[in-house]
Write a structure and sequence with these properties.
Bound molecules: oxalic acid
Radius of gyration: 22 Å
Shape: elongated
Helix content: 25-40%
Length: about 400
């Protein structure tokens, strides 16, 4: 696996944010509902987080953890107050070249628990790992490693709780394309005033009201996007893998096999799917050909769901009008990649999950750690077979 291709800065920012924000915390009696427990209760209610059907102590491999490895030394110092019987080890390292992952792998022997991300080396050397709390929403760093499935390691993640900020970002990308902000941003940087409107069509700007958005992947994040789009007066359609039910603000929920047909009527297509064997490469030439020439494609999920060469060709040929991309494949794009220079593309560096409300993540980690220690039902468990 190429780390530079897959890794986002989001977990690094997340860990740095935790270290800065949690230092003054004091030891709590876990029997009381302290500030973290109260915050977790609010997060569980707001996002309707799902509990595992059975308590974790019923798993044959469960035991009170003896060694917990986490991303970040400051975070380890903080977390140790919640697991005083365990050794909590913090690891430092750069994410972009995989240094963090090798540093974790060097410490993972004998660890029961990892709070971070997976890599094949971590899983290979972490023979005692029983529970991994991911520090992001996408679970593919774990679920694409066969040994995780073979060993049935318990994986929990940040499903649903990052929905609001990622949805805001998707809408921001849509508005950026609709109002030509990539063009005007470039003009601002060059100190150019392109002048008042001469003819209504000249800037090719568009309004979102009454346009149709197709949300591909109506999960926690997709639902937040759909809610915002409906609030803006858009018609919202969606696809999901498992069932046709959806909230009332989504006028039609189709199954995955309907996606190309639905894309043909959409003005904006947003990818909100997890990366799985089914979604890898699903946005290809056939998909972009089916879209309207006036339509835009937005990706706030994973770059590998898109055949990048096909997206570039569609943008160059005018098969689609524009793209707003928070994620790409490869990631980051090499300096000479054509997407950098395209006037109809807005790129952001995989930061959709960044937020001033990072505080939802920490209560979830602490709550899941407390549940694990007590052997209770865990929150936000990843279905390893499905991959999310
Ligand atoms: C995630 C992300 O949370 O990409 O998965 O930021």
């Amino acid at each position: 696996m190429s780390f530079s291709k897959r890794r986002s800065w989001a977990p690094v920012l997340f860990v740095a944010g935790l270290v800065l924000s949690v230092v003054p915390a004091t030891a709590q009696n876990a029997a009381e509902c302290d500030q973290y427990c109260q915050a977790a209760a609010a997060v569980i209610e707001r996002f309707e987080l799902r509990e595992a059907p059975s308590p974790v102590r019923e798993r044959p491999d469960w035991r009170p953890p003896v060694r917990i490895v986490v991303f970040g030394e400051g975070f380890a110092r903080f977390l140790s107050q919640f697991a005083p019987e365990a050794e909590v080890v913090g690891v430092e390292g750069r994410m972009e070249d995989g240094q963090m992952f090798s540093a974790v792998a060097d410490e993972i022997e004998g660890a029961d628990v990892l709070v971070g991300l997976c890599s094949p080396e971590i899983i290979e050397r972490g023979k005692d790992l029983r529970w991994i709390q991911l520090v992001n929403a996408g679970a593919e760093t774990c679920t694409t490693i066969p040994e995780v499935l073979e060993r049935g390691i318990l994986v929990t993640n940040f499903q649903r709780i990052l929905g609001p900020q990622i949805a805001d970002h998707a809408i921001a990308l849509m508005f950026g394309l609709a109002r030509g902000l990539q063009r005007f941003g470039a003009e601002q940087a060059a100190g150019t005033w392109s002048g008042p409107l001469r003819s209504p069509g000249e800037y090719a700007l568009w309004e979102v009201e009454e346009k149709t958005m197709l949300v591909v992947g109506l999960g926690g994040i997709g639902t937040e996007i759909a809610k915002r789009a409906a609030g803006l007066g858009m018609r919202v359609q969606a696809t999901r893998n498992s069932r046709r039910e959806g909230p009332e603000f989504v006028e039609y929920v189709g199954l995955a096999h309907e996606v190309v047909e639905l894309a043909a009527n959409a003005d904006v297509v947003v990818n909100a799917t997890p990366l799985t064997a089914q979604t890898r490469g699903m946005f290809d030439a056939a998909f972009f050909d089916a879209m309207k020439e006036t339509a835009s494609f937005i990706n706030i999920a994973r770059g590998e769901s898109v055949v990048t060469a096909d997206l570039v060709a569609a943008l160059e040929s005018g098969a689609i009008a524009g793209a707003g991309l928070d994620v790409t494949d490869p990631e980051p794009l090499p300096p000479d990649h054509p997407l950098w220079g395209m006037a109809n593309v807005i790129l952001t560096p995989h930061i959709a999950a960044a937020s001033d409300r990072g505080g939802r993540r920490l209560p979830l980690i602490i709550e899941n750690l407390r549940r694990y220690l007590r052997g209770d039902r865990m929150l936000s468990v990843v279905n390893l077979e499905r991959g999310y």
